[in-house]
Amino acid sequence: MGENAISGNLTIDTRDSETLVVCFGEMLIDFVPTVGGVSLAEAPAFKKAPGGAPANVAVGVSRLGGSSAFVGKVGDDEFGRMLAEILRLNNVDNSGMRFDDKARTALAFVTLRSDGEREFLFFRHPSADMLLLESELDKNLIQKGKIFHYGSICLIEEPCRSTQLAAMKIAKESGSLLSYDPNLRLPLWPSEEAAREEIMSIWNLADVIKISEEEITFLTGGDDAYDDEVVLQKLFHPNLKLLVVSEGPNGCRYYTQEFKGKVGGVKVKAVDTTGAGDAFVSGLLFSLASDLTLLTDEKKLREALLFANACGAITVTERGAIPAMPTMDAVQDLLSSSSRS
Fold it and tell me: Which residues are the active-site residues?
């Protein structure tokens, strides 16, 4: 099979392209211990699960009833084929996926230790996702997107770094809204300085940015993540339409050119926080793809952020990221029950 061949691929119906969310970046296999609260070395066995933030977001948008596509590279191996099939089964357009016959699909061993810290061990030396070439981009698919969503993992090494910049340029020139979730994974970067510099190198190109409290502290060099002035002076840029700070169970803060505020979280019993941030992003992008006016209408924006908070909340009630991504019915049920309580 050639690099670009794919069996069982799914291409979007062009009628959906008016609300299409195109997600660019890594898709990999997470290996998670079969028991909780242990280090990787202590784990008796591991269970495999599809992973990668941009792919999670693509599935999240589709699960809500939206239109999404994934652009990235996996190995021409059993795991790569499995990931392409998972996207297809979740109604995500996977026609922008490419298969590398020389590099393997990335693997990540991840655990939540008893002290609450996450522990990662990555196998990317190099992995296929790092080797996506600009010449392999499906330009037509990228141009169809109402929103183009990406992270920072692909900025770590060439050739993927240049490919991401090229994809962002194609999307911007076609009128797509650019959405950025840095999704900091320090163990993958050569140094903290390199991570900070590269993550900020594309900061001013985004229309919408979602970050966590920890990422604010990291990117500002230790400043107070809860200080509005820190966020506005150091992280808000003139072209930015929306900056969202996710606060986990406490909800989120939002900043636009015209207004700022906070939307509270939706209370649930957490089982596994994996994928909660990606579910939040998918909920927000689903709403944005349907109605861009919520960027300038605070009432609509607050409703969309409450919806996104509920998406994140539902995801933590189940194990895994993609399996736990919520349906529209589940989100509406949670919102109606929380409004009654």
Answer: 278
